Amino acid sequence: MKAKVIVPIIAVILVIAGVVAYFVYSGGKTDPTTLKVGASSTPHAEILEQIKPILAEKNITLEIKVFDDYVLPNTGVEDGSLDANYFQHRPYLAQQNDERKLHLVEVVGVHLEPLGIYPGKTATLAELKDGATIAIPNDGSNEARALFLLEKLGLIKLPESSAGDYNITVKNILENPKNIDFKELAAETVPQALKDVDLAVINGNFALSAKVSDTVLERESPDNNPYVNIIAVKEGNEKNDAIKALADALTTEDVKKFINEKYQGAVIAAF
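and the corresponding structure tokens:
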């Protein structure tokens, strides 16, 4: 074989060997990447902290931005100041996309936070008196979610057509036999109202933050529950390698074990 043929062949072999060596000795690491993820403090940011070492092995630095509201994490992903967020469930994302003209999509479902009813001035559901006050979240799908739970417990009656309608509010209540006065509040402020109301319907993450989760009277069933909390990104970024690594890291057996052991039913792994 002529030398001028041998040289290109050797060059190709060396390139292939170099690529193989790279993946063997780098563990498949990619170029350094920083992922900025918006999250609620509890449990989302706590769960994200668990996967920092996993992502670091892949040359991905996870930067967690904590938010205490339900708007900025979505607008941040929309405008590109965040790469992803982890704070909301599927119905809320759908509603926000519609209302705010966002273009966000789900990457993976991670956990469920069963909505719960918590005691305020009234200790139990059985003791709830006529004219009692119940605080509920006022943000779109979570208000509907609270009303569905209260209907299941027999405290109110909603139209049959409202099943699965995440836009219903207290105005849709057909029957209110106990004449309950509903106090509609921003979800993050509902725990603070416990001292002023008889009962409160609180999102699981805010119940954990307020350290009242162990006082819950009733929780949503996790069976066929649509309110799975998800990783969301701007449409078109869901196949990004770093985003895929984030999703994979969040759905490992180690993360499932962490969730189930730490939160004792207030948060449930959904994978």
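(Above: one complete record from the training split.) Residues 19-26 have pLDDT under 50 and may be disordered.
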